[in-house]
Amino acid sequence: MKTLAPPPSLLIRLGAPISVILAAILAFVLVACALLAPFIAPYDPTDLASFELMNAELPPAFTADGDPRFVLGTDNQGRDLLSAMLYGARVSIAIGGGAVLLAASLGVTLGLLAGFYGGKVDSVIMRVADVILSFPTILLALLVSGIARALLSGASTAEWAPIILICAIAIHEWVQYARTVRAATMVEAAKDYVRAAKVIGLPSRRIMLRHILPNVMSPVLVISTINLAAAVLTEATLSFLGVGMPPTYPSLGTLIRIGNEFVFSGIWWIALFPALALVILVLAVNIVGDWLRDRFNPKLRVKR
Amino acid sequence: MLKVPLSRLGQAALVMLVVSAVSFVMFRYVGDPVATMSRENASIEEKAELRRSLGLDQPLLVQYGRFLTRTLSGDLGISYRNQRPVTQLIAERLPATLELVIVATILSLAIGIPLGVLCALKPGGIAARLVQAVSLIGISTPTFVTGIVLILVFAVSLGWLPSFGRGQVVDLGWWSTGFLTISGLKSLILPGVTLALYQLTLIMRLVRAEMIDVLSSDYIRFAKARGLPTHYIHFRLALRNALMPVITVTGLQIGSLIAFAIVTETVFQWPGMGLLFIQAVSFVDIPVMAAYLLFVGLLFVLINTVVDILYAVVDPRLRARSA
Questions:
Q1: CA distance A203 to chain B (A)
Q2: Which residues of A touch B256 (CB under 8 A)?
């Protein structure tokens, strides 16, 4: 999770305001809790033996008829909601992180190629990027997952769900990486050290990977923070719409989808707590990302 | 003069060709239409007959050509699930989505522009900081969570507003509207607000940025030096210029609002195109998916092209740059 939040000490050295540091710590704690879910969750929601239908739809412990065993209440199947949320957040973060990684590697590669070679390579890659960018994320993601679900038979859809989701989200996000890296590569490629490397006859691949890439990586890391927040939101939206993670292996979005069916019967906690967790997680990452973006954008710094 | 519009039109046609090819490939290769359309225990002869009647035994290019001709004549096939023409389904659902999008756009402009101006005029003020903080929360809150919270508060707890459907609609022949009945208008409030909130943050940030830009330009400084009244400078001179890009972006955003309405429509069971599409995705109803893709693609390309051409016509600098 290197892309998520730089360690707080680094943020302090960069002169971050206290709110950003708090957000970074919060994001760090949330991600740590989610990743350590099997060790800190009171119950194992993936273990069918650990929950009983008898305990279904119990309200949170702090309300009048709450059960002290279940801090945030139980869901419709009698699962402890807090445990389900911890495991769900882990799924959400894993898929979001996976999508960012895939998008970044695809986007950086294509951006490097486009910026380094220019000409036909550049115009083909950027044309494709333009077309993709003219469609909203959610529509493309739905299309990809729709096609994938149609190609796979019903049973294996659930197994492949994480991979389908990662691809569905990455297909839109790589464009931003490609554009940023392309612009930075064009600047670098005109500099003397790259020209010198070309003159002494180094292979293009080596120039791109060893000389240019390290110099264009910092904007990539900055974009990744904001993109991670966006990817987690897209995953949640797809799962909420019922084309994401299945209820047997829920992400935060799936939990909210399940809870949504009970909102009208006054059972508010199944939808509300996962929603709250999702918003807080994304908000914390966004605060850090927003600040990083402004900090590393020289144009904005002058304006302020 | 004509060069830019022509090349833009060429590009638009190319994009539409790609979109139609994708939707054709989906139509043809994703799942077997014959298996989906024939009865459970149809004989091999029956299936072959159906295959022939659908033209699936023809060469690929011929099939694509036929697909294009049929599409251009408005025939987009028959929904596997509803067994009705897709064009008819979309035409039925279009008014619901468009009315929702119109309400959301008006709401977001009506709230977003004043808030953006407020933030730009008093950047350090408490109100501006509050608005900024709320907008960050707004970006981090997915639309469906906003929708669920609104339903919990205004429909379940308070019982003031309906939480699903369009209420009573008035049929105007080819258009069914919810604007003319009280229950229709009431039903529009919650989904309209939910969809508007998605747009609101964007408009607010844009107005703020543009306004700050314009306020630091020379002609505003001269106007101040001349001693013109402040509200005249702010609202007559500055805001007008700051609003130009806002109008463009709002126009461009209508396409993504229509696509994004999928989420809002699911939360509120709003019978629009988005709900139709999401049902098609979960039932693997390929003709409906392909048609929706074509329709939204067309809408996007149309809006983008018109905006680009208008820009080139209005702004001579753009013409010179691309020539």
A1: 34
A2: 136
Contacts of B255 in chain A (CB under 8 A): 136
Q: Does B140 touch chain A (CB under 8 A)?
A: yes
Check pLDDT > 70 for residue B316.
Answer: no
**Residue range A170-188: mean pLDDT, rounded:** 89
CATH number of the domain within which A161 lies: 1.10.3720.10
Domain that holds residue A277: 8-62+71-296
Distance from CA of A243 to the nearest CA of B (A): 7
* A185 in Cβ contact with A217 (< 8 Å): no
Residue B98 sits in a domain of what CATH number? 1.10.3720.10
Residues from chain A contacting residue B136 (CB–CB below 8 Å): 283, 286-287, 290
Q: Give the H or E element holding residue B158.
A: none
Q: Can you say whether residue A73 is alpha, beta or left, with left for phi > 0 and alpha for psi between -120 and 50 degrees? A: left
Coil, helix or strand for A80? strand
Residue A5 has pLDDT above 60, yes or no: no
In a domain, B291, yes or no: no
Whole-number Å distance between alpha carbons of A145 and A159 = 13
Is the per-residue pLDDT at A65 higher than 50?
yes
Q: B88 is written with which tokens?
A: 């008819």
Least confident window among A49-63, A75-89, A248-262, B164-178: A49-63
Chain B nearest CA to A188, separation (Å)? 24
- Give the pair of three-digit tokens for residue B267: 């939360």
How much is the pTM?
Answer: 0.80
For A121-172, how does the pLDDT look when each residue is reduced to its tens digit (9 = 90+)? 888 888 888 778 777 788 888 888 877 777 776 666 677 888 888 988 998 8
